[in-house]
Amino acid sequence: MNLKKLAAVAAASAAILSMNIGTFTGFECSLSEANAAYTEDFDYEDLDEIFGDDDMNFDYVEEYDPYYDEAAENNSKKDDSSRDKTERSPVLVFFICLLLGMLIAGIAVGSMWAKLKTVHMKSNASDYTKPENLVLKVNNDTFLSKKVDKAAIPSNNH
Amino acid sequence: MADLIEYKCPCCAGKLEFNSGTQNMKCPFCESEFDVDTVQQYNQELAAASGDNMNWESSAGSEWNSEETAGMSVYSCQSCGAQIITDNTTAASSCPYCDAPIVMSGNFSGDLKPDLVIPFKLDKKAATEALNKHLEGKRLLPKVFKEQNHIDEIKGVYVPVWLFDTEADANMIYKGEKRKTWSDSSYRYTEISYYSAVREGTLSFANVPVDGSSKMPDDLMESIEPFDIKDAVEFKTAYLSGYLADRYDVSAEKSVERANQRIKRSTEQAFISTVQGYSNVTTESSNVRFNNGKAKYALYPVWILNTTWNGNKYTFAMNGQTGKFVGDLPADPSAAMKLFFGITAVSTAVLFGLSFLFGMF
Question: B22 CA to chain A: closest CA distance, Å?
């Protein structure tokens, strides 16, 4: 392959990477901006009309309040972790692809290098005999013993 | 005091003890149990195994007569010491091994007359074409190797070889294991059955060649094997016309060690291939003896080319009978680096594109 073409493809891959990083960070910025706009427009004075002075409603909210707080806390953690994963993964994936690329290149260049070496000592004389030349006078297999090992399967207790 | 008899455990080689409870022999180390008769037979087989015995009759070659040697000349290489023989009608100007100039040192005399010769079947043109084909498709090869003026220096040389015939008698004892695994809800079970496999037999070999010239690299000569002995004829000096012949300087006695190694290895491989049906086979005892060993002296045809690059000498050889061409080629490190980085860049781009398409992030 033309080396100029290889260099062009390498430059294109670097360009794709930089665009992808920009795309994902831009997407997250737009999400957080949308959330901020929604909360700014919401009129919190309407809350009294929604919930009123009804004691029953107040008791209902109070009863389920701890679970609501816990759910809200879990949701915020989930949002944080997914936001972190999206930020790291293009770079991590690129480095994994780079390592795999280096491995593929190493194998390819290694096989080309090996083709240059064709001189080797012979390990045996199989070219100067034939399998039918083998005459077996004794061919015995004798059972000696048997043993059984057992290993406990670890149980996973949740 | 009577000698103590000790029986070895076939599994771990520990000392077996008689277990009065089970009336069997038991190993206190690996807790394997064996029938008494089985253990006795196994230990007798091991004790009967003796060492290798590789003896040869070495009566290769014959005497020259004066008419044969009258038309032959000897050339000496001042650089590597090679002694090249050819007939009086062939002019030799450079050494086939080191390319240095050679001078005629006299008429040929002494030495053994070869028993056999395989005449050249392929000419210089075929050797040139084979060299060009050998250089093709080698991306890491420096371009200097493809220059035409190097190719003309190919020389046809008869290389002296010792040919060994023998029958190899082998007594082999192997230990085989069969494994079976299963599990239930609580445990994973592994059952290992141990077997002793005995093989005795004979394997015959014919015309195993060993290079008889110290100037011809042994690995180069073995790389262009095999030669087909069916084309071998009784030696006549006429076959030397137009070609060079190397004088042997490694005796049959010194060459036999190499033949022993190759024949023993082949014998061991052939016998272990008969032990089948086991998940693991190990050799407990190996005993190889050679019978009816004979040596012959022959000349084998080889096309040889020498070239030098960056201060290093490179030798190529082609089997003058079958056309097999070998020779280590140098690699261009800068070309290798460029290819490495280029392939890395392309592979990385392709893999990254694929991972993006498959939504891995």
Answer: 14
Choose the mutation target among B138, B348, B360 for the interface with A, i.e. most A CBs under 10 Å.
B348
Residue B276 is predicted with a pLDDT of: 94
| Domain parsing of chain B, residue ranges | 1-48, 66-166+202-264+291-330, 335-361
Q: Is the pLDDT of residue A15 over 90?
A: no
Phi-psi region of B146 (alpha: psi -120 to 50; beta: other; left: phi over 0): alpha
Q: Where are the domains of chain A?
A: 21-91
Select from B32, B194, B328 the Cβ nearest to the Cβ of A117. B328
Residue of A nearest to B198 (CA): A140
The values of phi and psi at residue B344, to 5°, are: -60, -45
Local confidence band at B129 (pLDDT 50, 70, 90 cut-offs): confident
Q: Which residues does chain A have within 8 Å of residue B356's beta carbon, measured at their own beta carbons?
A: 16, 20
Query: Which range is least confidently modeled, B64-78, B121-135, B318-332?
Result: B64-78
Strand partners, A151: B188
Q: Do A112 and B138 touch (CB under 8 A)?
A: yes
H or E stretch at B99: none
Residues of chain A contacting residue B202, judged by C-beta atoms under 8 Å apart: 134-135, 137
Q: How far is B100 from chain A (nearest CA, A)?
A: 23
Supply the pLDDT for residue B174. Answer: 95
Shortest CA distance to B166 belongs to which of B273, B48, B58? B58
What average pLDDT does the segment B120-135 reach? 88
Q: How many CA atoms lie within 13 A of B272 on its CB side?
A: 17
The pTM score is 0.68
Question: Using CB atoms, which residue from A3, A93, A137 is nearest to B360?
Answer: A93
Q: Please, what is the average pLDDT of chain A?
A: 69
